[in-house]
Amino acid sequence: MTEQKERELYFWMVLVREFEARVAALDKQGKLAGGVYSGRGQEAATVGVCHALRPDDWVFPLHRDMGAYLVKGADPNRLMAQIFGRRDGFSKGKDSYLHGGDLAHGIFGATSMLAATLPVAAGMAYKFRMKNEDRLAVAFFGEGASSRGDAHEAMNFAGVHKLPVIFVCENNFYAYSTPNELQFAVENVADRAAGYGFKGEVASGNDLHTVMNVMQKATDRARRGEGPTFIELKTYRYHGHSEHDRAAYRTEEELVTWESRDPIELWEHYMDKRKYDLPAIQAETLARARKVVEDAVAFAEASPEPTGPEAMDDLYATPVGEGR
Ligand SMILES: Cc1ncc(C[n+]2csc(CCOP(=O)(O)OP(=O)(O)O)c2C)c(N)n1
């Protein structure tokens, strides 16, 4: 990998962290329109996965996958406006962050029902297959979501039809407060892939190199027509489930253990070992990321609130023959 690419990957992780930190602060100031689910600590997972994709591939992020939006190409200004519930957001102020997809960049908005997007991702991959398109669908979900029937149905269907879809489970050890041992009885969630007839990979979600390696294998497999991969990335969220959750169900020792494997610090350590000018890179990257975030906040704050009647816009398609 070139130094330029490694620095770019670093920028994405720092941008995701800075963006989410600002969003958490804005939430505490009561400025936002909906729930905030920080993925702080999970940046290597979303950045590593999405960096491996092409612009015309599709991602299906869930509530903790802000990085997927940013790396896949969503405009940070519109993303922030979405989080503020303003007219320039993807849903034009009709919804909170969670449900705002950005169709122009291949980002499907999350649904509140966990795992409900997985069959949609499989369906989209089925369409790619039918139309002979060299494109992939990537569905993110947590280990909690993996317990839902939708996840099983999607993976079974994808396995039967050898679809170009990658299932990325970010296992951060808690689904809200439910720990792994009360969530599934297998050792790894990805062990289930065998039951669907495709490959399961278990990897560190905090180590960017590892994430990129497993993604490379999975995208190659899918593009060769060899079907899906179930990637389980072991990672950790530093914040509670959402900003109001103090996460009293975990120990300080556990949190600190994971913080000592911080994905951004691991990458900095790597760049240092490569003898790059780390202090200069850190300062430059942080300034660049903060500028993007501050511009996005200014844009969102200047974006108007939608008016009442706009609530009815876009609810129905224009009937055929009418309008245009
Ligand atoms: C079907 C369904 N059940 C419960 C919820 C409430 N809920 C939202 S997020 C969440 C925890 C999800 O955990 P996980 O899938 O592991 O993802 P994480 O939040 O850890 O990233 C729960 C229980 C929901 N949205 N949908």
> What ligand species are in this complex?
thiamine diphosphate
Q: Which descriptor suits the 3D outline?
A: globular
Low-confidence region ranges: none
Helicity range: 40-55%
Terminal Cα span = 50 Å
Kindly provide the radius of gyration, computed on alpha-carbon positions and rounded to a whole number of angstroms. Answer: 20 Å
SSE ordering: HHEHHHEHEEEHEHEHHH
Class, according to the CATH hierarchy? Alpha Beta
Q: How would you characterize the largest beta sheet?
A: 5 strands, parallel
The helix-and-strand class reads alpha/beta
List the helices and strands and how they pair.
Blueprint: H1 3-28, H2 43-51, E1 58-60, H3 66-72, H4 76-84, H5 117-130, E2 137-142, H6 149-160, E3 165-171, E4 174-175, E5 178-179, H7 193-196, E6 199-204, H8 208-223, E7 229-234, H9 252-259, H10 263-273, H11 278-302
Parallel strand pairs: 1-2, 2-3, 3-7, 6-7
Antiparallel strand pairs: 4-5
The structure holds thiamine diphosphate.
Residues 64, 112-114, 142-145, 148, 170, 172, 174-176, 241 line the site of thiamine diphosphate.
Summarize the structure.
This protein is of the alpha/beta class and 324 residues long. Helices cover 44% and strands 10% of the residues. The protein has a single domain (3-309), classed as Rossmann fold.
